[in-house]
Design brief:
44% of the residues lie in helices and 11% in strands. By secondary structure, the protein is an alpha+beta fold. Among the domains are: 1-88 and 292-328, Periplasmic binding protein-like II (D-Maltodextrin-Binding Protein, domain 2); 107-199 and 347-372, no CATH class. Helix 1 packs across helix 11 (304-316), helix 3 (114-134) runs antiparallel to helix 6 (168-197) and helix 6 (168-197) packs antiparallel against helix 14. The radius of gyration is 47 Å and the shape is elongated. Residues 2-331 form the Ionotropic glutamate receptor C-terminal domain. It is a multi-pass membrane protein. It comes from Rhynchospora pubera. This is Glutamate receptor.
Length: 442
């Protein structure tokens, strides 16, 4: 909050996030409410007691309402009524971040989760078996042990597109599987590259109780009720150090061992403001404690409490509150990039479930079609091209073929059954009655 005093008009000009929220809420009232600002104490008040005194002025009747970064606390509601909070509530920690170097030996397995690896292997084998079944020539050429068959299946799953496939069904399976491999390998490469090259920022502290166990020093804003909160959490007062907001970065950089602190405990709206200016070296951890947030304090029973609360609700439900935060706190993009550690998550099975389903369905349908064709259609009808090499007899082309005619073959001797019997007996007796052959002189 910024306060300026105009010497000529003797008037106070105030600006800031709380002021803008209040003025925007007053504009949305159904009637005009005149007001003027008065300064109480320093800006900001120097202690939590002065904040309590600030609110108590309403109870004393000195002010009609108080505006500022006033946290709604139980003890303050005893003597004032508060509007609904207009900021995010809670207590969190500001901690430094460090670069995490991944030294995992098996980092090449991390881009894919276990279920995705298993699903890929199952579909990998199923596709190879499908191609093997759809290609009879490859199937009939298989020889050797089971391990050799498995090797062929693995080869077809990876290099099936390089083989000379004859069945149109196997070609369809390979085309779909090649697309699955393209998407899967591209995603794997991108995820692995991200894990190896993207800078990963991790908070040095993730739990406030670790600070207690390790005996670390913890900081808090000077004059804030956070001091009492840390005491309620059983922190040793000798391990607590108070700082002004402009001293937070230096204290965190020194560290607990060098006169600084390991973490700063503060309210979330202030942490957002700090990270907006220091969004590369620190992050927010928490919230670790729940609070009600900032609100405006009115006298007990004031009718303006309900009206202003409704106006605040109207502001926070729309885009106006976001624009006010960007104006006074900073761009949320810087907070997210600098205040949250960058991590590269592994790809899971659900990301590729639809792709795997399509590939498996195509393979199954092709197998069913092949089975139906094999059962109900003859091999010649399946592959008529295989019979193209068989010669077809043409009677006109075979004029030289001689057809046997009994009438034309009168010169052929006809064996007499009686002579045939005598010849047979002579053979058995070892005699030959046939006339001797004579040699003709040439």
């Amino acid at each position: 909050m910024q306060v300026e005093i105009d010497p000529e008009m003797n008037a106070i000009k105030a600006s800031g996030y709380s002021i803008d929220v209040f003025e925007e809420a007053v504009k949305r009232l159904p009637y005009a409410v005149p007001y003027e600002y008065e300064l109480f104490g320093g800006v900001p008040p120097v202690s939590s007691e002065s904040y309590n005194d600030f609110v108590y002025q309403v109870y004393l009747g000195k002010y009609d309402l108080v505006i500022g970064d006033i946290t709604i606390r139980y003890n303050r509601t005893r003597y004032a009524d508060f509007t609904i909070p207009y900021t995010e509530s809670g207590i969190a920690m500001i901690v430094p971040v460090h670069k995490a170097v991944n030294k995992n030996t098996f980092i090449f397995l991390m881009p894919l989760t276990t279920d995705l690896w298993l699903g890929s292997i199952v579909l990998f084998i199923y596709t190879g078996i499908t191609i093997l079944i759809l290609e009879p020539k490859i199937r009939t050429s298989l020889k050797g042990s089971l391990s050799g068959h498995l090797g062929t299946i693995m080869y077809l799953s990876v290099f099936g597109y390089q083989e000379k496939l004859e069945n149109i069904l196997s070609k369809i399976v390979v085309i779909v599987w090649a697309f699955v491999l393209l998407v899967l390998t591209s995603s794997y490469t991108a995820s692995l590259t991200s894990m190896l090259t993207v800078q990963q920022l991790q908070p040095t502290v993730t739990d406030i109780h670790d600070l207690q166990k390790n005996g670390e020093y913890v900081g808090y804003p000077r004059g804030s009720f956070v001091e009492g909160l840390l005491q309620e959490l059983k922190f040793d007062k000798s391990r607590m150090r108070a700082y002004q907001p402009d001293e937070f970065a230096e204290a965190l950089d020194k560290g607990s061992a060098n006169g600084g602190v390991a973490a700063i405990v503060h309210e979330i709206p202030y942490i957002k403001l700090f990270l907006a200016k220091n969004c590369k070296s620190y992050t927010m951890v928490g919230p670790i404690y729940k609070t009600a947030g900032f609100g405006f304090a009115f006298p007990k029973g004031s009718p303006l409490v309900l009206e202003i609360s409704r106006a605040i609700l109207n502001i926070t439900d729309g885009d106006d509150i976001i624009q006010l935060e960007k104006k006074w706190i900073g761009d949320e993009t810087c907070l997210n990039n600098g205040g949250i550690s960058v991590e590269s998550n592994s790809l899971n099975f659900l990301s590729f479930w639809g792709l795997f389903l399509i590939s498996g369905a195509v393979s199954t349908i092709c197998l069913l079609i092949f089975a139906i064709i094999s059962l109900f259609i003859s091999p010649n009808e399946i592959n008529p091209e295989e019979d193209e090499g068989l010669p077809i007899m043409n009677p006109e082309e075979d004029k030289d073929l001689r057809i046997m005619n009994p009438e034309e073959d009168e010169d052929l001797p006809i064996m007499n059954p009686e002579e045939d019997e005598e010849a047979h007996n002579d053979c058995e007796n070892g005699t030959d009655t046939s006339p001797p052959l004579t040699n003709r002189a040439s």
